[in-house]
Design brief:
With 106 residues, this protein is an all-alpha fold. Helix content is 46%, strand content 0%.
């Protein structure tokens, strides 16, 4: 089933009462909106790892996530970095971090 978008102008706002049921259906439809597999997540990190080091610096990752596509907020970046950065080496070993990004199937 396709989502229907109204062409009637509402001033750029969608009332929560209309938004919540539609987003609930979208998020619950696992057959249509599947999470990315681990290998595709790793490939995305490899694109950012220009030198093929096997890791990214926090600055490299933060730059990519705040300047490309839909930017992460500061709070989202802090949460992600706290999980992603190896505390000893202060880099993001993306092959270790990618499995943490996977959604658990219920």
């Amino acid at each position: 089933r396709e989502a229907v978008v109204s062409t009637q102008s509402t001033g750029g706002y969608v009332r929560y009462e209309r938004f919540e049921p539609m987003m609930t259906r979208v998020l619950m439809d696992k057959s249509r909106y599947r999470p990315e597999p681990e290998d595709r997540i790793i490939k995305a990190f490899e694109v950012l790892d220009i030198d093929g080091k096997g890791y990214l610096t926090p600055d490299e990752l933060q730059k990519a996530l705040t300047t490309e596509g839909e930017s992460f907020t500061n709070e989202e970046m802090e949460e992600m970095m706290s999980a992603a950065v190896d505390q000893d080496k202060q880099v993001v070993y993306y092959r270790d971090f990618a499995p943490l990004m996977l959604l658990e199937e219920s």
